[in-house]
UniProtKB/TrEMBL annotation:
<dbReference type="InterPro" id="IPR002821">
    <property type="entry name" value="Hydantoinase_A"/>
</dbReference>
<dbReference type="GO" id="GO:0017168">
    <property type="term" value="F:5-oxoprolinase (ATP-hydrolyzing) activity"/>
</dbReference>
<dbReference type="InterPro" id="IPR008040">
    <property type="entry name" value="Hydant_A_N"/>
</dbReference>
<dbReference type="Pfam" id="PF01968">
    <property type="entry name" value="Hydantoinase_A"/>
</dbReference>
<dbReference type="GO" id="GO:0005829">
    <property type="term" value="C:cytosol"/>
</dbReference>
<dbReference type="Pfam" id="PF05378">
    <property type="entry name" value="Hydant_A_N"/>
</dbReference>
<dbReference type="InterPro" id="IPR045079">
    <property type="entry name" value="Oxoprolinase-like"/>
</dbReference>
<dbReference type="GO" id="GO:0006749">
    <property type="term" value="P:glutathione metabolic process"/>
</dbReference>
<feature type="domain" description="Hydantoinase/oxoprolinase N-terminal">
    <location>
        <begin position="2"/>
        <end position="92"/>
    </location>
</feature>
<feature type="domain" description="Hydantoinase A/oxoprolinase">
    <location>
        <begin position="112"/>
        <end position="267"/>
    </location>
</feature>
<protein>
    <submittedName>
        <fullName>5-oxoprolinase</fullName>
    </submittedName>
</protein>
Length: 268
């Protein structure tokens, strides 16, 4: 099993209950009501304790953790409490705050939480890469419309690119590329994509339209986000072979490449 992406967990003491016709809970007459995204009314049985949460988040921040994923059970129906937590975290100085309701606003809490964690884990690194990318251009691309490809094969502005929607952006670009250049719509013969890199290999199929999945497992982490149907094997052209504990294993160590790609200023 892969290591978890988070270092600490804070339990947020709040509770929303979807209102059910004909079902009356003791004390519910005095509970605030909010309207959910689908028009469902929710009862706020226990509001957020922002004061207590502030103290806990300050402690987390003091321990050097600057990236935060927020998951509340019914936020896919009403994101108000998550948005309050997010606003508080940004006020305190967290550099990255990923709300599960914004990253993957779907019903199932566990994969939604994993997806928010992956987003919080990956986005800071992607932001650093984008800053370095911009510094390589005159005026740092100010005023220039730059689009990046997401895992679902669509394009998004640079400011919106990151995290859970970028995990398969490279392989997705490969699928879009070979779909446009190799598929013959006259005979409709499906095309198989085989994209081998240094330490992984991506396999896909195109038969006239892009095929999507809405939940997949990447590196052992469930991701609840639209992405092209690409199967990845953790072995590539540079993967090293070992015997470990009597078992034959492949990678993840790589032999590397020298001089390497010209685009990395290693070639001729």
């Amino acid at each position: 099993m892969p290591e978890v992406l988070y270092e600490e967990v804070i339990e947020v003491d709040e509770r929303l209950i979807p209102e059910q016709p004909g079902c009356h809970l003791p004390g519910s007459d005095t509970w605030p009501r909010v309207e959910g995204c689908s028009g469902v009314t929710l009862l706020v049985q226990r509001p957020l304790d922002l004061g207590g949460l502030r103290r806990e988040l300050e402690g987390v921040l003091a321990r050097g953790i600057q990236s935060l994923a927020v998951l509340l059970l019914h936020s896919y129906m009403w994101p108000g409490h998550e948005e309050q937590v997010g606003a508080l975290a940004r006020e305190l100085g967290f550099r990255q705050v990923s709300l599960s309701s914004a990253v993957a606003g779907m019903a199932r809490a566990v994969p939604r939480g994993f997806t928010a964690c992956a987003d919080a884990y990956l986005t800071p690194g992607i932001r650093r890469y984008l800053r370095g990318f911009c510094h390589g251009f005159a005026d740092q691309l100010r005023g220039v419309r730059v689009l990046f490809m997401r895992s679902d094969g669509g394009l998004t502005p640079m400011g919106s690119f990151g995290g859970a929607r970028a995990i398969l952006s490279g392989p997705a670009a490969g699928v879009v590329g070979y779909a446009r250049t190799t598929y013959n719509s006259l005979d409709g013969t499906p095309v198989i994509g085989f994209d081998m890199g240094g330490t992984s290999t991506d396999v896909s199929r195109y038969a006239g339209e892009l095929e999507h999945v809405f939940e997949a497992t990447t590196a052992g982490v469930p991701i609840q986000a639209p992405q092209l149907d690409i199967n990845t094997v953790a072995a590539g052209g540079g993967s090293r072979l070992f015997f470990r504990s009597g078992l034959y294993v492949v990678g993840p160590e790589s032999a590397g490449a020298h001089p390497g790609p010209a685009c990395y200023r290693k070639g001729e």
